[in-house]
Automatic annotation (TrEMBL):
Keyword Transmembrane helix (UniProt): no
Protein family: Belongs to the 'GDSL' lipolytic enzyme family.
Alphabetically ordered keywords of this record: Hydrolase
GO function terms (MF aspect): hydrolase activity, acting on ester bonds
Keyword match Cytoplasm: no
Organism per entry: Persicitalea jodogahamensis
InterPro entries reported for this sequence: RhgT-like, SGNH_hydro, SGNH_hydro_sf
Protein known as: Rhamnogalacturonan acetylesterase RhgT
SGNH hydrolase-type esterase domain span: 25-218
CDD domains registered for this protein in UniProt: Rhamnogalacturan_acetylesterase_like
């Protein structure tokens, strides 16, 4: 038995209850929000409350970032430096990579290379990368059918997941299905849609079909959590129901 314990230590096997960190890297749809932005909510915020005490969720996502700018601004290297065996890195980019008129624009080739870099450097630290396709925007056609707005970069993400044998959460498809189920009108409840005077942070109102309300963020987080269970990632064993106050 002693030799078995020794092997477990040498090869870095983790006890299911060992403390781990789940790093979130991505853009504004995932990120923490300042009080002045409320009720805008990134899905990474409610996501953090669905785990037991052995899990720390470290949300490094940042508004307006692409894979390229996340690396160039030295936001990725501190994540790598802090990784330890058994940690997770959930990677969701695309919103800001795909827009050619933005300074954050990342070519398809660069986007692919950056995703592979995140994966390889995570694995080099014995951490577990998970790719996530960019969450859907609220856009419907005249017939009330949801319209995909991330097709190219979502497919690039899927391709990298296949090539590198990396777990994939297809949040683009899943969130499109969710929005379709809500419908064109009711889906507004999931996004930052406010009438003038409805909230002091937005006295003139707000019509935003990209960023989420608290309800929308929770719904997107639940899609990610369900996928973690479906993929049978070891992290699924640490998911709990949040405690009510």
């Amino acid at each position: 038995m002693c030799w078995l314990v020794g092997l477990l230590v040498v090869f870095g096997f983790n006890n299911p209850s060992d403390p781990i960190t789940v790093y979130l890297i991505g853009d504004s749809t995932m990120s923490e929000k300042a009080v002045r932005a409320y009720p805008e909510t990134g899905w990474g915020m409610p996501f953090a409350y669905f785990f037991d005490e052995s899990v720390k969720v470290d949300n490094r996502a940042m508004n307006g970032r692409s894979t390229r700018t996340f690396i160039e601004e030295t936001r990725w290297q501190p994540v790598v430096d802090g990784l330890k065996a058994g940690d997770y890195v959930l990677i969701q980019f695309g919103h800001n990579d795909e827009v050619e008129t933005k300074k954050s624009y990342t070519t398809p080739t660069e986007f692919r290379q950056n995703l592979i870099r995140f994966i390889e450097e995570s694995r080099a630290k014995d951490a577990r990368p998970v790719l996530i396709t960019p969450v859907a925007r609220r856009q419907f056609d005249d017939n009330g059918k949801i319209v995909g707005t991330h097709d190219a970069y979502s497919e690039l993400t899927r391709a990298v997941a296949r090539e590198t044998n990396t777990p994939l959460i297809d949040l683009d498809r899943q969130s499109q299905q969710l929005l379709q189920a809500f419908g064109s009108e009711n889906s507004k409840l999931l996004f930052l849609q406010l009438a003038p005077g409805e909230h002091p942070n937005y006295p003139d109102g707000k019509v935003d079909n990209t960023h989420f309300s608290e309800l929308g963020a929770r719904k997107m987080a639940q899609l990610v959590l369900a996928s973690i269970k479906e993929l049978q990632l070891p992290l699924a064993d640490r998911i709990i129901k949040p405690k009510t106050k």
